[in-house]
Amino acid sequence: MEKFNYSAYFGPIRSLADALREGPSRFWEPGQEELSKPHDYVLYLGCNVLRTPHLAQSMVAILQAMGVDFLTLGGSAHCCGVVHQRVGDGDIGLRVGQTTLNRFARVRPKAVLTYCPTCNTVFDDKLASGDLASDVPYRHVTQFIAENLDKLVFTTSVPRRIGLHMHVGTARARQDSDHVMSILRRIPDLDVVELPAAEEWSYACSAAIVSGPGGKGLHQRVGEMFRAAGELGCDGIATVYHSCYRDLIPAERAFGLPLMNYAEIVVQALGADPFPARYKELAQSADPDAAYEALAPRALDRGVDPDGLRNTVDLHFRPGAAPLDLSRYMEEATDDRS
Fold first, then answer.
1. In this structure, which topology does domain 2-149 adopt according to CATH?
2. Hey, which CATH number is domain 160-269, 3.40.50.1860, 3.40.50.2000, 1.20.1250.20, 3.40.50.300?
3. 220 vs 226: CA distance, rounded Å
4. Which pTM does this prediction carry?
């Protein structure tokens, strides 16, 4: 009988986030004192965005620029439970998700601002079915920003023509994409065009999710999108979600169009210094040894175990890396009674 090794899955995310994040502390893990204080909002990041912490820090910077009182929560300690559900540990996943919802309630927020599309989907489904319970309202952070654009002052023009990689396979994904479009269209000199999308793209990029008639898979659809962006005169492609950004990185080099997340563009338009996109640089280099040498000084100084760092750079930055393939974390269960 096989069981899922959660430490092997979540541990490298934490090590990578510590190696890549800007700033001295884990901004997604507030102390107990902060958790006990009321805040107007909770920015809920989920887990996997911490593989690309510069995107999470971009979102934090945007909310700070809006003058919002919020608390940031993310990482495996605040998981929605989706990984557990996907590997057959449904009951554990529900307990994990409920613990996270209860933690939101401690902060007594007006609303939770969700970031991850999968966390959104889990909460939508499990709250509707009654498997989870919470009185705290939540909405995607794109909606919150779009509804409060008067709080953002764009001081820097962005003279580019950007194609927006959208998802329309669910109503929520369509709404998130529309909100991002409305945000980007407020930025001076930025021309934004919708890239072709279809329901088969579902709610986010994933080889397991994206399918279509005639066996069209993720790679073919990505190629079609990048070629369409070039034909439309785009000089870059922006994603709504962090997961799409991560999965589309290989296509940037293949098609010669820069890839970014919309939050990076917003930070630029606010006149702030962008957070370094080091994950993308290292993923494109596909050289774990070079990645280790580049990250070791900062990571080891922050207490990351050398073997843990070696493991995470191999997992994420070797050629053909697939760190979200859950099957790699399955192992034979041992009988603890022996």
1. Rossmann fold (3.40.50)
2. 3.40.50.1860
3. 10
4. 0.93
